[in-house]
Design a protein that fits this description.
Layout (H helix, E strand, L loop, with lengths): L1 E8 L3 H11 L5 E4 L7 H5 L8 E2 L3 H5 L3 H7 L1 H6 L2 H10 L4 E4 L3 E4 L4 H14 L3 E3 L4 E7 L2 E6 L4 E9 L14 H8 L4 E7 L3 E2 L3 H5 L4 E2 L3 E5 L5 E5 L3 E3 L3 E3 H14 L13 E6 L6 H10 L8 H4 L6 H10 L3 E2 L2 E2 L5 H12 L1 E5 L1 E2 L7 E6 L4 E2 L4 E2 L5 E3 L13 H16 L3
Parallel strand pairs: 1-2, 1-9, 2-6, 9-25
Antiparallel strand pairs: 3-5, 4-5, 7-8, 8-9, 10-22, 11-16, 11-21, 12-15, 13-14, 13-17, 15-16, 17-20, 18-19, 23-24
Helix pairs in contact: 1-7, 1-15, 11-14, 13-14
This protein binds flavin-adenine dinucleotide.
Flavin-adenine dinucleotide (FAD) binds next to helix 1, helix 2 and helix 15.
Length: 421
């Protein structure tokens, strides 16, 4: 029997941080991890560079989590804002630096430094880390939590902190076990959905462009009636199966939500559409004037006059959608209607999307323990004694840019401070 005052389940970003900060207060902590090593997702993150937080301040950062998330994270991002995360890592010997889009990376550019620093901090603070320790069940018995582990082992603690993450990228250890435990306790769960995941498109021209990136675009996600469901000004990447890159991935949770829950595809329904503004800095009026100046020219020539560089093959698709190309030969840009069609295609190139690549390719799981069931001032689960939930297991997800680690660290900090020692 493994016995400790406090047990943290899951040695990912949140669990490592919580175990470290809790043990620093002089209390006994055991950290249980099902994988053979800690922080598997940290190691895989940010292209193995680990975008560990954002350069925004806490107040700005919390608003990246939607209305409910922002409200819930108010306290957490106040006591452990992004700057605080950077300071703690600097103390652990991991200085950080800023990158475009307010991202923050370790100066070394190595995710392994982040994972190693956290693991070292946990051990130096006196906590024990047990890997290959998969928790199967949790049960409340008198004043304690009893845990059944794989291999017939058992564990007992007074206070339990659950940090077992979501159910995306299951190969990193996250198979959604926490949802089962919380569900069995009768707690409300928001159905998990893949988020920060590439989108699927069946349009052949999209896969033909695989490998092409559009750096400076604004993307709107629209439904079949043209209603705008979300928008992002971030790069877009064409792939063999659809579109990826931060712009598409940030909008993917909305696509997931619009699909029948766990499904990957919008079966039998009209596809959603991305409308890509290829000239986001230019007003419609200024583009209209620019096109008027090209009246009577070959439509293909317009490309050279545009204020932003658009890859030739993408521009060909603009011409196609504007009905200005046919049978291999370009058309003359002539008349108001033709100019309007080209304006429309330049300011809203249409990409049909019908689903996402699902949990296997999702960086984050949206959904999880309903925030209404948790006290944001302590991460204590309401109505259940000695139970704390932190990190991605909560119904929290942010966009690409270090927000999800920031939320994992900050919620862990809150729980560590609130846990009785
Ligand atoms: C490829 C990829 C890249 C990413 N890049 C970034 C990035 O650059 N910046 C960013 O902010 N976010 C990034 N994310 C998201 C980020 O990794 C997560 O949001 C974050 O790790 C969540 O932290 P967590 O501690 O809640 O969960 P996790 O880090 O997922 O940790 C959960 C841990 O619990 C363990 N566990 C699960 N079930 C059990 C069980 N039954 N018993 C014992 N242990 C269990 C798991 O093995 C895992 O170690 C990325 C995600 C992926 C997949």
């Amino acid at each position: 029997m493994i016995e400790a005052r406090n047990i943290v389940v899951g040695a990912g970003a949140a669990g490592l941080w919580a175990a470290w900060r809790l043990a620093q207060q002089g209390t006994e902590v055991v950290l249980l991890e099902k994988m053979q090593q800690t922080g598997t997702k940290v190691l895989a993150s940010g292209g193995s560079r680990c975008n560990l937080t954002t350069a925004l301040d806490g107040e700005q950062a919390r608003h990246a989590f939607g209305k409910d998330g922002a409200r819930f994270l108010r306290h957490a991002f106040r006591i452990m804002p992004p700057q605080g995360v950077r300071e703690r890592f600097a103390e652990l010997g991991v200085p950080t630096e800023e990158a475009p889009f307010e991202k923050v990376f370790p100066t070394s550019g190595r995710a392994v430094d982040v994972r190693n620093a956290l693991e070292r901090a946990v051990r130096q603070a006196g906590a024990r880390i047990l890997c290959h320790a998969a928790v199967l069940e949790i049960r409340r018995e008198s004043n304690a939590w009893l845990l059944a582990l794989a291999g017939g082992r058992k564990a007992r603690c007074r206070t339990l902190l659950l940090a077992s993450g979501g159910k995306s990228y299951a190969r990193t250890g996250t198979t959604g076990d926490g949802y089962r435990w919380l569900g069995a306790l009768g707690l409300p769960l928001v159905p998990p959905r893949p988020a920060l995941v590439p989108l699927l498109s069946r349009a052949p021209w999209v896969s033909d462009l695989a490998g092409v990136t559009l750096e400076h675009v604004e993307i709107k996600l629209c439904d079949e009636r043209g209603r705008v469901l979300g928008r992002r000004r971030r790069p877009l990447l064409f792939t063999h199966t659809g579109v990826s890159g931060p712009g598409a991935m940030d909008l993917s949770e909305i696509v997931s939500r619009s699909i029948e829950r766990d499904g990957l595809e919008r079966q039998g329904e009209p596809p959603l559409e991305l409308a890509v503004d290829l000239l986001p800095g230019q007003s419609e009026d200024s583009v209209r004037i620019l096109l008027e100046q090209q009246e009577g020219c070959r439509a293909t020539k317009v490309l050279q006059t545009l204020p932003l560089r658009i890859p030739r093959r993408v521009f060909d698709q603009v011409l196609r959608q504007a009905d200005l190309i046919g049978e291999g030969k370009a058309t003359i840009l002539s008349g108001k209607k033709a100019r309007s069609r080209m304006l429309l295609a330049l300011k809203g190139l249409r990409i049909p999307v019908h689903g996402t690549r699902g949990f296997d390719h999702a960086e984050v799981t949206a959904g999880g323990l309903d925030l209404a069931a948790v006290d944001g001032g302590s991460m204590r689960v309401k109505g259940v004694d000695d139970l704390f939930v932190i990190g991605e297991l909560l119904d929290l997800h942010g966009p690409i840019g270090g927000f999800n680690f920031q939320s994992a660290f900050a919620t862990a900090e809150v729980a560590a401070r609130a846990t009785p020692t």
